[in-house]
Amino acid sequence: MNWDILGHEWAVNLLREHVKRDQLRHAYLFTGPRGIGRRTLAIRFAQAINCQEPDSLGEPCLQCQTCKQLGKLQHPDLSVVQAEVEGENLKVDAIREVQYSLALHPYVSRYRIALFLRFEEATMQAMNALLKTLEEPNSRVIILITAESVEELLPTIVSRCQLIRLRPVAMEKIQESLRNNTNLSDEESLLLAYISNGRPGIALNLSQQPDILQQRKEWLDDLFRLMSASLVERFDFAETFLILNPKKILDRSKFRNLLQVWLPYWRDVLIKNMKADIPVTNIDRENEIEKVSSHLEILSIYQMINNIERALDLLSKNVNGRLIAEIIMMDLPHINI
Residues 274-279: contacts with CB within 8 Å, 24+ apart? Predict the structure, then answer.
């Protein structure tokens, strides 16, 4: 049994043994890129801990009331803390609000579970507030934290948690799972496996929402067109496509999603430019990427990757989003293909 999770067998085995041997730590930190399965694994672990009718110790049934409620994040002994909007900051007030409940005994289950999602978005004040809870743990509380990497958290928080670093799942496994559990063709399953870049959550989400795939295609078409466009056309794109309200405020969430589609494209351009023996992510646009790479120097490709990564970082902070968008448009390499 793998808790109905694709991949991460070693992590499931480790957590299962903690439950079976009654050796639960008071805090666990799940790290890895978006869509890798941090949240899913944390929820399955919570179910394994509190399942009413486990198939065996450490094996949640996923059918009892507790498992179902935890799966929906609606259990009375579960507290979920996250930024209201993905990419925005998690404030200290949200931590303080949950601290009172963590001092109480569980209502109906063996343990009270506190789930802190995307904790890299927490402010320094919020992290320090959680640190106080970690330093004085309630014996009937298990704290589960998800974050992209340990580098974005206070070292003192990381040192007080059992660290679970999740790595990309083999693309063959993702393709096989999609082929067996969806109506996708072999070609479509292969494309989603590559686009997901080893992240099962991304692949599953794409398989269930074809409109996201269509949006990806349109955004990559826009990128290719903008590379040969004038600066006026690029600014017009930023104005009409990304700024969609009367107050002319940048749609930060949409801009972030756009950049997350563009970033793997530029990494693919770099792979082609270096003639590296590594498969590209956007296999459906490989010929186009080959042409783009042949018109650029490696330093300009590196610069574009760095610019997008920096833009994503700045968008997570309270930096002028419109200015970020204009800089990206100006720095986009100009080529005619």
Answer: 274/298, 279/194
For range 246-256, the mean pLDDT? 72
Residues 6+ apart with CB under 8 A from 185: none
Supply the pLDDT for residue 182: 82
Same domain, 326 and 193: no
The pLDDT tens digits for 10-46 are: 999 999 999 999 999 999 999 999 899 999 999 999 9
In a domain, 22, yes or no: yes
- Contact present, 261 and 224 (Cβ < 8 Å): no
Q: What is the pLDDT of residues 98-121, one digit of tens each?
A: 988 888 889 999 999 999 999 999
Q: How far apart are CA 2 and CA 200, in angstroms?
A: 14
**Tokens, residue 111:** 């343990």
Q: What is the domain extent for residue 267?
A: 210-331
Measure the CA–CA gap between 136 and 26, rounded to whole angstroms: 10
**Residue 4 is encoded by which pair of tokens?**
């109905």
Global pTM reads 0.82
Residues 158 and 270 in one domain: no
Three-class secondary structure of residue 80 per DSSP: strand
Q: Report whether pLDDT(149) > 70.
A: yes
